[in-house]
Amino acid sequence: MKVTVRIAGGWLYRTRRIMATLCIALLAGLVGYRAVFGANGMKVWQGKRTEAERLQQDIGRERVQHEQLEHRVRALQRAEPSVIEKEGREQLGYVKPGEIVLFEQKAKADVTTPAAVHGEIDRR
After folding, report:
1. For 77-110, what is each residue's pLDDT tens digit?
2. C-alpha to C-alpha distance for 94 and 88, rounded to whole angstroms
3. How far is C-alpha 111 from the chain's CA centre?
4. How far is the C-alpha of 124 from the C-alpha of 108, rounded, in Å?
5. Distance separating alpha carbons of residues 69 and 63, to the nearest angstrom
6. What value does the CA radius of gyration of the chain take, rounded to a whole number of Å?
7. Rounded distance, CA 84 to CA 63, Å?
8. Helices (H), 38-102
9. What are the pLDDT digits (tens) for 22-64?
10. Phi then psi for 38, rounded to 5 degrees?
11. Is 122 helix (H, G, I), strand (E, B) or coil?
12. By C-alpha distance, which of 40, 38, 37, 36 is closest to 48?
C-alpha cells in the first residue's frame, strides 16, 4: 500500500509545476472568455455603444423636428397670413375664388394580379 501512495505522491510532486501552469491557463481562459462574451463583456459593450449612437442620431432628428414644429406654432400664433393660408389649403382644402383644383386619381387595379385573374376584384 505504501508503494502506491509513494508512487502517486512522487508523480504529483514532479508534475506540480505543469499542473499549476495548466490550472492558471484554464483560469485565464475562463476569465478572458467572460471578459469578451460575459454579461458585461466586450460584445455586450459594443452592442450598447452602437445602440447609444443610434439613439443619439434619433434624438438629433427629433430635436430638428421639434424646432420646426415650434417655428410653425410661433408663426401660427403671430397670425401670419401666409402661414394661415397654407394651413387652410393643406388641411381644410380651401381654395381661392376662381382657382381650378386638380385631383390625382387613384390608379386602377392591375389586370394581371392574381385577384383580378380570379375575378375577386369588385368592379364598380
Report:
1. 888 888 888 888 888 888 888 888 777 788 777 6
2. 6
3. 39
4. 11
5. 10
6. 38
7. 24
8. 42-77, 81-87
9. 999 999 999 888 888 877 788 888 889 999 999 999 999 999 9
10. -70, -175
11. coil
12. 40
